[in-house]
Every structure is written in C-alpha cells, then in structure tokens.
C-alpha cells in the first residue's frame, strides 16, 4: 500500500516513521510519502491560506496549492481521505475497507478547513472519503490522519504477527474488550480473578465473554442489537406451550454452569421435558421473548423454613448469546417484586464456582449463607426482604 500525506505541518507526521507504519515500511508492506503543501506555492510568503468568502473568523486553505500537488502526485484513481469534523464517522469497518485499497492520499486541513472546490475537484478524479475521527474538535487533520493510518496499516495482511488476535478485538467482535491482567497475581490489595488462573479454558472464555458483554452494556449499549436492550424486554407469565423452549434454554444455560463448575451432576442439566412441565405447575414462572424467541426465564415459590417463609427463586436463565446485558437483573427484580408480603427473605442457589453469578447476586444484595457439599455445591444465597 502507498500512503501520501499533504500537510502544512509535515513534521507533525514524523510519528508515522516511529510506530507501526514504520515497521510496515521496513517489511516492504508500505510506502510512506509526506509532502509540505507549501511546496506548491509560488509567492515569497509561500501563502497557503486566505480569508473566507462570506466573511467570518479564521482562514481557509487555498485551492491552487492543492490542485498542483494533486496533479504532481497523480492521484487519479486513488482513494483520497480528508479528515474533517463534517465527515462520516471513522469506524473499524471503514478501516477494514480502506485497508483493501492500493493507495491512500490524506489531505490534512488546518485553520477553518480546505476550500470546498478542492474536494469537489478530487471527486471528479478519485474516490473521495471525508471522514471524522470523532465528535470533538481538533485544530487540524494530522492527528486524525495518524490515527486512521494506524487503524488501517495494522489490518494489512502479513502485518500483525498474530492475525487471529485481530478477530477478538473490540469493534471486531462487536463487543468492548474484557479486562486483562498479568503478573503479579496480587497487587496493592487487588487480586487477579481466580478463574483466569484456573486453566479451565471454557470457564475463562465464559468469564471474558461475560465481562465484555457487561462492559458493552454499561459503556456502549449502542453497540448492542436493539433486542439486547432492557427497554425492549417484557416479562410475562409462562404457559404450558413454553415448556419445550424452556427445557432447551435450561439445557443451554446449565451447560455453561457445568463448564464453569467442571461438574456435570447438576440437577437442572438432567431434567427431562416432563420435569419442566411439572415445574410449571409447582412454581410461578415467567419468560421473556424477543421477536418471538424465548430468551430468558425465572421462577419462584414460597418455601417454609424454621426461620419463616422464604421466597425461593430459581431457574434464572438468560440465553448465552444475550448474557451480560442486564436481562438477568430484570428477571431477578421481577421475581423479587412478585414475593408475597409474608415472605421474610429471598433465597436462591448457584454453582459454588459460578463466579459471574455469585458476583451478580452479591451486587444485587444477596450473601452466601451456605455452600453445600453436593456436586457444584451449590452455594445458597439469601437476601432479607426489607419492609415493603
Ligand atoms: C480536519 C481544520 C480545524 C475544524 C474550525 C477548529 C477529524 N474528529 C475531528 N475533529 N476535528 C477534526 C478536524 C479539524 C480540522 C481539520 C479535521 C482541518 N480543522 C477546524 C472546523 C472548525 N477548526 C476531526 N477528522
């Protein structure tokens, strides 16, 4: 790939030679050419700007130097990238698109911008891409050109040592990055999550996926499909006809539990359809459907204990591909709100090594009161019901 830059601050782009692009040049993957726009001026002051037609503050970059530069650089058929706050958003898909081009020519503006006729002229002889780095104002196009160059060059075939790692990145997977850790295992009172040192790759992958989803839901819900946004979810009472889908969702969700607890002897995993149907008769059960698909469920019933009536909550299920977006919280809160006035506490169980679930329940105010010594525990969690 050949990259050309037109700018009145060529030294601003020296960084190109330092970082990634520099290595790509060494590898012969890239040709970098930085040009000072003043090269194509002919007056003693090497003037590149003038006052704006129509008045107003600031100066505008004149068209003539650009015209001569574009001629000398023979940009016909190339892709001319013009960073501008008025451009389309620069995104990973656009970076992938630009990485397929043979040649990119960056026009770096300054002052109030570049005379519009330059862009109109470019569009007659090349592919014009006016693009913005983000919704904030910079003083010129150079910083944006540097960032866009890095995002594009690292996608060039043969450039990233381990291309596979590209796939897992934010904005490639559609989710934000999961948290990362390295040695030491403890630092200033902060521990590395034990699951990451468990060697259980299934559990590690589930944890990372969970954290990535949670972060995305928290920080960038716009990245999540509409179906995954809380405002879209309607919790309804389950009916007999839901049994088949409930059984299927139950199997899918408890396979994940079996993985993270490294234990297959979990009751929910061994229930048959009839057990699910029977459960519908013994528990109040709710479901959430999105576009007709059953994506979540929870059930509850009262259980008498020596310490009074508790509201037993169970089978809290969220479709694995929709986890980490708050649906579990919506279902748990719905089940809690359905508790009879006579109940003194909520009680639920989860795998003793289901750290993601344990973390979520503790965040919801539950505390572990017992870890049974059966398969995968389970851990028993309770939350007192405050006066209603
Ligand atoms: C090119 C001149 C400065 C912009 C008057 C401040 C991109 N995401 C982005 N923010 N700002 C830019 C950008 C700013 C530029 C130029 C890109 C050329 N300026 C101007 C208009 C208001 N001054 C950008 N990509």
From TrEMBL:
It is an enzyme of class 2 (transferase). One of its GO terms (biological process) is tRNA N1-guanine methylation. SUPFAM superfamilies: Acyl-CoA N-acyltransferases (Nat) (SSF55729), alpha/beta knot (SSF75217). Gene3D superfamilies: 3.40.1280.10, 3.40.630.30, tRNA(m1g37)methyltransferase, domain 2. Keywords: Cytoplasm, Methyltransferase, S-adenosyl-L-methionine, Transferase, tRNA processing. Its EC number is 2.1.1.228. InterPro entries: Acyl_CoA_acyltransferase, Alpha/beta_knot_MTases, GNAT_dom, tRNA_m1G_MeTrfase_C_sf, tRNA_m1G_MeTrfase_TrmD, tRNA_m1G_MTases_N, tRNA_MeTrfase_TRMD/TRM10. PROSITE patterns: GNAT (PS51186). It is found in: Cytoplasm. One of its GO terms (molecular function) is acyltransferase activity, transferring groups other than amino-acyl groups. It catalyses: guanosine(37) in tRNA + S-adenosyl-L-methionine = N(1)-methylguanosine(37) in tRNA + S-adenosyl-L-homocysteine + H(+). S-adenosyl-L-methionine binds at residues 109, 133-138. One of its GO terms (cellular component) is cytosol. Specifically methylates guanosine-37 in various tRNAs. Homodimer. Belongs to the RNA methyltransferase TrmD family. This is tRNA (guanine-N(1)-)-methyltransferase. The lineage of its organism: Bacteria, Bacillati, Actinomycetota, Actinomycetes, Propionibacteriales.
